[in-house]
């Protein structure tokens, strides 16, 4: 039996924001203002993902901080959503321009051809006249995207996590989709509510791209944690806050083990398909590991 460990890569955890907006689209803060806030909050990487456009602002970049290009594109087009403001949203990271037309698969393919990564944004969001959702069937059928938001303040995390679980089972370890948390910041009160901690060897675009592709990161809304494999067991460690629960969950979404101690080990039996870990703090904050696939 083999347990695939996405955290086995070398590096240190760095704080990353994958989804935020500025005055270049519908945000309240200028690019420089927003990036100064993220830098002061300890972020190492920030993607500005304004709607249907790429916003660049590198004036604050230094050895410990990097702003990166991205966009949040509305997947529009006949016959489903003929109006340009209707449709679900696709996050596109490491890209230089938005996609102006085409269906979701075409836009994902273009993202990949440009060396970018694609993300399904707020899957259960009911905005855009109820056209903003990513149905489970669609999410399972699409190919070539890497990320799905399991926590976004504009969406339902319980529903988004269930969609992620369904996608994981449909795609398997051959086409992994990793779960992310974001703050989707449009104004200051949404700032710093969700992020990922990525295991990187340097503050560079290449190091972060490698971590995102490999799943060497966890999602968080305020929990600091660590995860890994030892022998035939998956382990998790809650570093901060002090109180909370570690929940080890299989491919069907069934909790196999729940412990209240700061550390927990789940001995893999072999019938789980995968194990992922949710860390739930007494404050309500959470962390989500990536799946540990079992072969």
Summarize the structure.
The chain is an alpha+beta fold and 295 residues long.
Task: Walk me through this protein's architecture.
With 295 residues, the protein is an alpha+beta fold. The protein folds into two domains: 12-217, Metal-dependent hydrolases (TIM Barrel); 222-295, Sandwich (Immunoglobulin-like). The chain has six helices and 17 strands. Strands 1, 2, 3, 4, 5, 6, 7, 8, 9, 12, 13, 15, 16 and 17 form a 14-stranded mixed beta sheet that branches. The protein has a three-stranded antiparallel beta sheet with strand order 10-11-14, with no helix packed on it. A hairpin with a 4-residue loop joins strand 12 (244-250) and strand 13. It is globular, with a radius of gyration of 18 Å. The mean pLDDT is 96.
Strand content: 25-35%
Span from first to last CA?
6 Å
Q: Do you know the CATH topology of the largest domain?
A: TIM Barrel
Helical content band: 10-25%
Please outline the major beta sheet: 14 strands, mixed
The structure class reads alpha+beta
CATH superfamily of the largest domain: Metal-dependent hydrolases
Based on CA atoms alone, the radius of gyration comes out at 18 Å
- Tell me the domain tally: 2
Determine and state the CATH class of the largest domain: Alpha Beta
How many beta-strand elements? Answer: 17
Write down the overall geometry.
globular
Order of helices and strands: EHEEEHEHHEHEEHEEEEEEEEE
